[in-house]
Amino acid sequence: MTISISNAEAIDRITIAGHIIDEVFKRIDKMDLKHMRTLDVNDRIDTLIRERGGIPAFLNYRGFPKSCCISLNDEVVHGIPNKRRIENGDLVKIDVGVKYGGYIADAARTFTAGEVSGKVRQMLAVTEQALRKGIEAALQGNKVSDISRAIQTMVEENGYSVVRELTGHGVGKNLHEEPVIPNFVSNGPEIEIRPGMALAIEPMVNMGSYDVVTAQNGWTILTRDRSLSCHYEDTVLVLESGNTNLTRIEEN
Q1: What angle, rounded to 10 degrees, do the helices at 144-157 and 118-136 form?
Q2: For the chain, where are the E strands, in sequence order?
Q3: pTM for the complete prediction?
Q4: What residues does each domain of the chain span?
Q5: CATH number assigned to the domain covering 8-245
Q6: Dihedral angle sign, alpha carbons of residues 20, 65, 69, 31
Q7: Which residue, among 245, 238, 235, 208, has the nearest Cα to 223 in the 3D structure?
Q8: Cβ distance 231 to 3 under 8 Å?
Q9: pLDDT digits (tens, 9 = 90+) for 124-142
C-alpha cells in the first residue's frame, strides 16, 4: 500500500484546488435551487472551476460524463446531472472535485431546495457533526480507524446509518488514493495517520438502512429502502500539529 505524502508544491496546489471548491459551494449556497435543472447547476460549476484555473476532476473520470455529481433525495452519491428539475423540498447533494496544477481536492455538501422538515434538518446536522468529529480525529499518530469510529459513533448514536459500500480516501495526483477511509470501524489494516497526508473524509448517512443499490445508469448509488440520504465531505491536510481543512474556508 503506497500512501502519498505531499511536499510543499503539492500542498500549495491542493490548497488552491480546495479553495476553488469552497468558492463553488459558497456560490451555490446563495442560489435558489428550486426548479433549476441539475444540468444547469453542473454547467455553472464547470464554468466557475475553469475561470479559476482549475479542471473538473470528475469529468470523464472512469467514464463519468459530467463535471460534478448531483444526487437528489434517496440518491446517495454519483448522480449524473441531466434535464431533471430540482423541486421544492429536495435534498441536493453536490460533490465536486477540482484539479489544479496536477493535484486534486474533493468535497461535497448537502443543500436543501426550499423547506424541509425538522426531521430532515436534524439528519443533515448530525452528518455535518459526524464530519467534524472525523476531521478532529485526523491527527498525526492516530489511526484511520479513529476517524471511522468518530463518524460511526456520532451517526449511530443519533439513530441513522452510515453507508458501508462507499468510503473516504486519500487525494493527491489522483482522485482516489490510499488510504481508504471507511465511515465505520472495519477489519481492514490499521493505517497510521502521518503529516502530509491529504484526506477526503466523507460520511454518507441514511435515514433508514445502510444498504444501497446501483441505478441502471451504472453510476448513481441509491438507498435500497429509498430512505433519504445526505453527504458531506472535506479535504483535510494533516499537519505536524493538528490539521487544516482545505475545502471549508471560514469567513472573518
Answers
A1: 160
A2: 55-56, 69-72, 75-77, 91-100, 103-112, 161-162, 168-170, 177-181, 198-201, 204-206, 212-214, 221-223, 229-231, 234-238, 243-245
A3: 0.96
A4: 8-245
A5: 3.90.230.10
A6: positive
A7: 208
A8: no
A9: 999 999 999 999 999 999 9
